[in-house]
Design a protein that fits this description.
The protein is mainly alpha-helical. The protein contains nine helices and no strands. Helices cover 70% and strands 0% of the residues. The longest helix is centred in the last third of the chain and has 22 residues. It is globular and about 50 Å long. The structure holds adenosine-5'-diphosphate and magnesium ion.
């Protein structure tokens, strides 16, 4: 199955649905150790993307990801807006124009994007942020590529890795972002950005599963 930017409108719709279904939980998470606006920021960004979906579907992968990043950067606000924006804009830089999005290209692009996001946030694994999902998923994609993992197994592996990543934030003490002000009191809570990153990743994987089953 070839994954082209034609899939983007379906990805965006699926992400909007999963964020809506989980909005109360995510808001409660950001209220507990942040300021409670994470879902609103993300939903504003997603609505903007939805308006651009038909146009995005016509672009090459590199141009589409760049446009997504710029749109998120301009519309979301919050720490997460600049981080998600950086992720997508950086990913676009590692994709060759019109190259198909195979596992190797996806892993390389995602790894580069996550590394740039780390730099942007001056953060890394263990700080109780979205990176506690993004970094393990980036590593899982690399492993899957090296092991020539089959698609079915790959999808489960990626989603399970993302879920384990969110769960790993529960016992962490936040050292980055707004939550860092609360120090030890952040222990026992999941990080909101880690949760939405996981929801986004699992929603995209699910769309790919459905598409694969129908080919
Ligand atoms: P804000 O914190 O500005 O209100 P959001 O609520 O939209 O922005 O996003 C908060 C999320 O952003 C956190 O849950 C965390 O995952 C992520 N985050 C915040 N600061 C950083 C950072 N320095 N590095 C990586 N992720 C971060
Ligand atoms: Mg917030």
């Amino acid at each position: 199955m070839e994954i082209t930017p034609n899939c983007l409108p379906d990805f965006i719709d699926a992400v909007i649905v999963t964020i809506r279904e989980n909005e109360e939980e995510v808001t409660a998470l950001d209220q507990a150790i942040g300021d409670g606006d994470h879902v609103i920021n993300l939903q504003r960004g997603l609505e903007n993307l939805k308006a651009q979906a038909p146009e995005l579907a016509q672009l090459s992968w590199d141009a589409a990801l760049k446009k997504i990043g710029i749109s998120l950067l301009g519309s979301m606000g919050g720490a997460s807006g600049s981080l998600f924006g950086t992720l997508f804009i950086s990913m676009s830089k590692k994709l060759e124009i019109d190259a198909s999005l195979n596992l190797e290209a996806m892993a390389q692009s995602f790894t580069f994007g996550v590394n740039e996001t780390k730099k942007r946030g001056k953060s890394d694994l263990g700080a109780k942020t979205m990176l506690d999902v993004l970094i393990p998923v980036e590593q899982a994609l690399q492993q899957a590529f090296e092991a020539e993992m089959e698609t079915d197994k790959l999808h489960e592996f990626i989603c399970d890795t993302a879920l384990a990543g969110v769960e790993s934030t529960r016992d962490m003490i936040a050292t980055k972002g707004r939550a860092a002000f609360m120090g030890e009191r952040t222990q026992g809570h999941l990080d909101a950005g880690a949760k939405t990153s996981q929801l986004i990743i699992c929603a995209i994987v699910k769309v790919l599963d459905i598409k694969k089953a129908s080919t």
